[in-house]
Amino acid sequence: MAIGIQQTALQESSTLAIGEINKYDFRTNSTAIFKARKGIDPEIVSQISEMKKEPVWMRDFRLKSLEIFNSKPMPNWGGHIGVNFQDIFYYLKPTEQQGKTWDEVPEEIKKTFERLGIPEAERKYLSGVKAQFESEVVYGSLQEDLAKKGVIFTDTDTALREHPELLRQYFATIIPSTDNKFAALNSAVWSGGSFIYVPKGVKIDFPLQAYFRINAESMGQFERTLIIVDEGAQVHYVEGCTAPMYTTESLHSAVVEIVVKKHARCRYTTIQNWANNIYNLVTKRAVAYEGATMEWIDGNLGSHLTMKYPSVYMVEPGARGEILSIAFSSAGQHQDAGAKLVHAAPNTYGRIVSKSISKNGGRSSYRGLVRVEPGAKKSRSSVVCDALILDDKSRSDTYPYIEIEEQDVTVGHEASVSKIGEEQLFYLKSRGLSEAEASTMIVSGFIEPLVKELPMEYAVEMNRLIELQMEGSVG
Amino acid sequence: MSVDSKEKLTVSGLHVAVNGQEILKGVDLEIGRGEIHALMGPNGSGKSTLGYAIMGHPSYEVTSGTIELVDADGTHHNVLEMEPDQRARAGIFLAFQRPMSIPGVRLADFLRHAVTNIRNPDRKEGQDLIPMREFRGDLKAKMAELEMDSDFARRYVNDGFSGGEMKRAEILQLAMLRPRFAVLDETDSGLDADAVRLASQSIAKIGGADMGILVITHHEQLLEHNIPHRTHVMLGGRIVESGGPELATELHKQGYERIRVAYPEAAAAEQAMTATV
Fold first, then answer.
1. What order do you get walking across the sheet with B238-243 strand by strand?
2. Does the reported pTM lie above 0.80?
């Protein structure tokens, strides 16, 4: 509930107009003036493109995508999407010099950051205070190193200006506008997101994090991320943060496209904790070529409704796709999360591990697809989804879809639903743990197999976040 | 009310039912701090039920009687009003016959929480745990004392443990939590003779003058290093006879026939209870 309060507090404490509150768009050198209005139509879409001084092809792509968006029906699965598309700001102008200060950040948020143990610099970044200056100092040398190796790591708008050829080559090739209604919407109005290009054979041995980006137009509602890992290269990208994200708009619809070339590796880690009013409708897809490995690690907390199914298309022999996901839903929250593996070549290997926790009336659904195309011989796929339900008010569903058009394959599916056992609770309580501590401990243990895959600081944050969720003081 | 100044755990006229069936039919027991009591009796006589009732298992309903903790200054605490975690913080411990596994939770992390709460009984959730360095040092020392491999603490609580490992983990917890009163429920079951001897030695090291222990056992070996001040025999949900260490030896050698003959009413109750189980 605290998130809701934070949001109100933020709105009240800010002197900026609503359209300018997007903390993620803080840029000090922006002088552009753009009067946003609500709603979506060709004029707005063209304005966005003009604002960004985009090439004509991108503007045309946006306009075409808008048509597709208008023609597509709403998804007929998952939850009810109660969004009025004409009542949303689709482009929030980067905030100007009148920056917020740390003192203006609501106390609730500061406390949450503190309890999550988020480093000072990162807290400021997350709350929209001018962290870019600090990140410039801290991460400047890091950026230099990357640049020497030919790595491009920037926001997608900048990439479009500075690397148009790469954008033109890959943009929307993995997730075309026609993929689904929300991919089309993102294609029409996208802004921000990360662009990463890792050249052949370059292995980056530390996780790249969104807040390394200097002077970036950072995350927004419709961010668009594109990652290209060239042959034999390696990258781990970490996006988002476990701190509660608050935005003034109720719709978040991102698109993430990843190309993992021959024998390359990519791991993409996201932990997101949205405010309770958010519809979080995200399309994430990777294509893995010969001998390449793609791993998604996806943690979803908060939001009113999340629909997100990271997928890996294994299109050449020996490709591997792995998706680990954690969903935590509490009162008023529905996580319709899952994964998708498409085996389109022989000897491909896929694995899905999904863990969901439902508490206090929350609903978690696992929705997953494993598809094996004809000719994808000797492919192996395994799906394990475990649900933990903490009380009788909460709900968990499993929707596994398996489509196999090849005989010579191995596909396994295991699902379990469990409740926290009275005997486990009693055991822990008999050692002096309160009921809440005992439940938290059981939940932490339940997700431990996934948490240990996270970078250290994220694992720590994730555990603290689960503690807070279990206390009921956040979310 | 008690007039002496001994710290003790007292059980009086305790009746306990599980799923509406009465298991304990009036149990009286007084364990002073620093004393060792052995509780023996045939299977199904209610020994484990007494342990669960003392610890406060929610399925074990106390229909009448009292359980009290008495401090050295004579203050009485009504244990039945406490939640299991409050009982633990008040200094009561139960070594489980079949401890639960908690997958994904490392024994060391679990113990650090437990130790923190028991050393600071008034700690609220979310407050700091005891410092890692202090805890680690303590854990390491205790594990060395019990001849345990330090890797053991990194394993998930009872997850995939052998019977013997579970019992050793319970003994480690006993050592770390240092309760005032401990019920050891068949801490020897499922162990071979060497392991029982080791357990017996370990308990003797941990116990001593500041711990009152109720040892539930079928065997004498566990008592080898823990000579009981009192031995109690439970039959049909009652303690029918109490004696010194020689009683444990007798029961171990000769079984419960004499007891059954001597207490026909309890023997009948035992028959009725085992018939419905």
1. B92-95, B181-185, B212-216, B36-40, B230-235, B238-243
2. no
